[in-house]
Amino acid sequence: MSYEGFETLAIHAGQEADAETGAVVVPIYQTSTYRQDGVGGLRGGYEYSRTANPTRTALEECLAALEGGVRGLAFASGMAAEDTLLRTIARPGDHLIIPNDAYGGTFRLVSKVFERWGVSWDAVDLSNPEAVRTAIRPETVAIWVETPTNPLLNIADIAALADIAHAADALLVVDNTFASPYLQRPLSLGADVVVHSTTKYLGGHSDVVGGALVVADAELGERLAFHQNSMGAVAGPFDAWLTLRGIKTLGVRMDRHCANAERVVEALVGHPEVAEVLYPGLPDHPGHKVAVDQMRAFGGMVSFRMRGGEEAALRVCAKTKVFTLAESLGGVESLIEHPGKMTHASTAGSLLEVPSDLVRLSVGIETVDDLVNDLLQALEP
Ligand SMILES: Cc1ncc(COP(=O)(O)O)c(C=O)c1O
């Protein structure tokens, strides 16, 4: 029987009942190696778990199905996925375009690691396709997109940027961590590669670090698999299993994340202590129209700027009780953080520096009245 509904794929893709035991849940194949029936006689194609492991295969097939790609690859972290991708597609002399408010770790990888190996880059406002067109050079190999961005929640038009990239013979890479494949499917809009920190919404429970790549082209998938095996930053079997378990409930979790975020936004907009709320669901957000076209809903991430500047932002972060002060995002529990001093500290002094009055929320799936009341008491001066 074939199926294609998102939730059905999340629960079943790559996850047939175990052929020998009938186990409904894919087992944790906690093994590094596999017995061979005579030299080269592999059962099921597995020989060594850096190259492939059945629990990881299940996750990789599920990720490919959810993103509508031909191949998924699972890594030890989002950064490991990014590193493997960049080493596969870029070489000395090449050029990258990255968002001018990229995730701090991506900015650090490009500016502090790849630049040393002769890869140049420009940070561009990706919500402005003309600026991207102008920044393209003959040696540009990829446009790296985040939408919504971390932490400013800017929106980029994936289809428009795919056209610009392809006209220049470059790849369009989309970090889909904030939206998750439930809210946005970049490959269907023309992107070539989707990147994930599966640590976030895909895992969904703040208990595992992981990363993924999904591609639309089988040949690129082969090259990535070669580099994945060569560099070896793979997801371990237990991490793959935890991520698969999280994915099964992605759809219902995302619905609640989005609904709760909308209520939180309502409470923040117009609040006397809040200068500005950044959320693509707001009709006056500059990317609202594009977000309506390319996203199912607007996500669980909300950022806001405090009228009282950095001091007020730090005070709110210190005062919440249901929102936990912590880095990361996308788990069932609500988190609050100060990007300037926490997740984006590595951008200090650079053109990607984030405003010091900014607070970022990862709105969880708790009872929404508790979340709103917690924020309102923390906002009191
Ligand atoms: C948008 C985005 N991309 C990539 C990463 C890196 O992922 P990881 O922390 O799993 O290495 C993060 C982590 O916060 C992120 O927010």
Describe the structure in your own words.
The longest helix has 19 residues, at about 250-270. Helices cover about 35% and strands about 15% of the residues. The termini are far apart. The protein is globular, with a radius of gyration of 21 Å. The model has no long low-confidence stretch (mean pLDDT about 95). A seven-stranded mixed sheet has the order 1-7-6-5-4-2-3, with helices on both faces. A five-stranded mixed sheet has the order 8-9-12-11-10. α2 (about 55-65) packs parallel to α9 (about 235-245). With about 375 residues, it is of the alpha/beta class. It binds pyridoxal-5'-phosphate (PLP). Belongs to the trans-sulfuration enzymes family. It is an enzyme of class 2 (transferase). InterPro entries: Cys/Met-Metab_PyrdxlP-dep_enz, Cys_met_metab_PP, PyrdxlP-dep_Trfase, PyrdxlP-dep_Trfase_major, PyrdxlP-dep_Trfase_small.
